[in-house]
Specification:
387 residues; alpha+beta
C-alpha cells in the first residue's frame, strides 16, 4: 500500500499541495495535458523553484488572463462531470468541492446546492483542486495522512470585505481535526487547503509507520519571518500490516430513559454515520444504576450524531474526544454458494494469514429465504473460503 504524509510546516493551500507533488516527480507535461480535458477553462501554469530557509522547493501558480466572477456548485459539478478526466480524478475533485459547498452552505445559512463560490469558484482554484486530484491519482497514492494543522491569525481581505483569519470556511472544514495556533499574522491554511486535508486525509497527527521513498516540498506565495512557509509531502510504503485512523468517541450517561427506545436510537445513529454503537452499565451519583451510550464515528459526522443523541434520548449533554484506531487491512468480497450470494469480510492478520467472516445480515436473509439453519449456511460459507 502506497501512503503519503503531508507535513504542514507553514500551512497548506491548493497550490502548495500541487507544488509538492510536482517536486516529488509528477510530470508537468502530464499534468498540463490531463488538465486540458477541462477545455472551457482559460489559464496558463507557472512552475518555478524557490529556496526557503535554505530548503529548495517548488512553487506552482495558475495565471488567468482576466478577473473572473465566481461559479456556482452546480456549474463546477457540470464542468467536472463533462471533462475527459479519469473517473477516480472526477470523484476526488467532486468530493473536495462537495466539502467546500457544505461548509459554505452552513456559514451562509443556505442549501449547499445553492452555494455560489467566489474566490474558490474562480479558474485558478478549480485548477488547483483538479490538479491535486490528478496528482494523487498519477502518483498512485492509496491513502493520505497529515500532521496537525498550524493556524495563523489576523485579518484577510475577501470579496465580502475583511474576514478573520482563519476564515470561516476554513474553520468549518477543519472541525474535529487537530489544530494549533501559531505566531504568524497571516492566513496559513486556505479554504482550498482545508478542503483537501479534510477530504483526502485518513488521519491527522503523528506520522504513520512507513518506508520513505520520496520527499517533495511545496512553497507558499508568502514569506514568514520565523517559519518556513512550506508544505512537505513524503511518499512511501506502509510499513505495518494494518492501517491507522483518527476517529471520534461520543458518549453520554443516561439514567432516565425507557430502555425500549435504545433499538430505535441505534438505528438512527447508524443512519447518521456511526461506525459502532454500544451500551455499558454504570453506577452514577446517589448509587443510581445507569447506561453509558458510546458512539465511535468519523469526525465529520459529529454534528449529525450529536443531533440524534440530543433529540432521541433523554440526555442533556454529550462528551466527545478524538481517539486513534488501528485496524487490520481488510476487503469485502461476494461469495457464490449453492444457496445464494453472501458477502464476506476478509481481514489480513499481522502474520499474513487471512481471516474470513460472513456478513450476518446476508446469512440471515438467505437462511430465511431458503428455510435452512443459519449455522449450516455459516459453515458452508467458511468451508468455501478455504478451498
Amino acid at each position: 500500500m502506497r501512503i503519503a504524509y503531508g507535513d504542514l510546516i507553514g500551512g497548506i493551500s491548493g497550490d502548495m499541495f500541487v507544488a509538492a507533488m510536482l517536486d516529488l516527480g509528477l510530470p508537468l507535461t502530464k499534468l498540463k495535458s490531463t488538465l486540458k480535458t477541462t477545455s472551457t477553462l482559460k489559464y496558463r501554469l507557472e512552475v518555478t523553484r524557490k529556496t526557503i530557509h535554505s530548503i529548495r522547493a517548488t512553487r506552482f501558480h495558475v495565471i488567468c488572463p482576466h478577473q473572473e466572477s465566481g461559479r456556482s456548485w452546480k456549474q463546477i459539478r457540470r464542468l467536472i462531470a463533462g471533462s475527459g478526466l479519469h473517473p477516480t480524478v472526477k470523484e476526488t475533485g467532486m468530493d473536495i468541492f462537495s466539502h467546500l459547498a457544505q461548509a459554505e452552505g452552513k456559514i451562509h445559512g443556505i442549501d449547499p446546492e445553492k452555494v455560489h463560490f467566489h474566490e474558490v469558484g474562480a479558474t485558478d482554484s478549480i485548477v488547483d483542486i483538479m490538479a491535486a486530484a490528478i496528482g494523487a491519482h498519477e502518483l498512485g497514492i492509496d491513502a493520505f495522512h497529515f500532521s496537525s494543522i498550524p493556524l495563523g491569525r489576523g485579518l484577510t481581505r475577501a470579496l465580502h470585505g475583511p474576514l478573520p483569519v482563519p476564515g470561516p470556511a476554513t474553520l468549518e472544514l477543519l472541525k474535529g481535526l487537530p489544530v494549533e495556533g501559531i505566531d504568524v499574522e497571516s492566513e496559513t491554511v486556505t479554504p482550498t487547503g482545508a478542503a483537501i486535508v479534510s477530504t483526502l486525509g485518513k488521519s491527522c497527527g503523528v506520522q504513520p509507520s512507513m518506508s520513505m521513498e520520496m520527499i517533495g516540498y511545496g512553497a507558499g506565495q508568502k514569506d514568514f519571518p520565523n517559519r518556513p512557509n512550506l508544505f512537505r509531502l513524503i511518499i512511501g510504503a506502509d510499513a505495518v500490516p494494518w492501517s491507522q485512523e483518527q476517529m471520534l468517541v461520543m458518549e453520554t450517561n443516561i439514567d432516565d430513559m425507557n430502555p425500549e427506545f435504545y433499538d430505535y436510537v441505534f438505528d438512527r445513529l447508524f443512519a447518521a454515520g456511526a461506525r459502532d454503537v454500544f451500551l455499558s452499565p454504570i453506577q452514577m451519583k446517589k448509587n443510581r444504576p445507569a447506561t453509558l451510550l458510546r458512539v465511535i464515528a468519523e469526525t465529520k459526522d459529529r454534528d449529525a450524531l450529536a443531533r440524534v443523541l440530543l433529540s432521541e434520548t433523554s440526555t442533556i449533554g454529550v462528551r466527545y474526544y478524538p481517539v486513534g484506531r488501528i485496524i487490520l487491512k481488510r476487503l469485502s468480497e461476494r461469495l457464490k454458494t449453492r444457496y445464494g450470494t453472501i458477502r464476506v469480510k476478509v481481514a489480513e492478520e499481522p502474520d499474513g494469514t487471512k481471516r474470513v467472516a460472513p456478513e450476518y445480515d446476508d446469512l440471515k436473509r438467505v437462511a430465511a429465504a431458503k428455510n435452512i439453519p443459519l449455522k449450516l449456511l455459516y459453515d458452508e460459507v467458511v468451508r468455501s473460503t478455504k478451498k
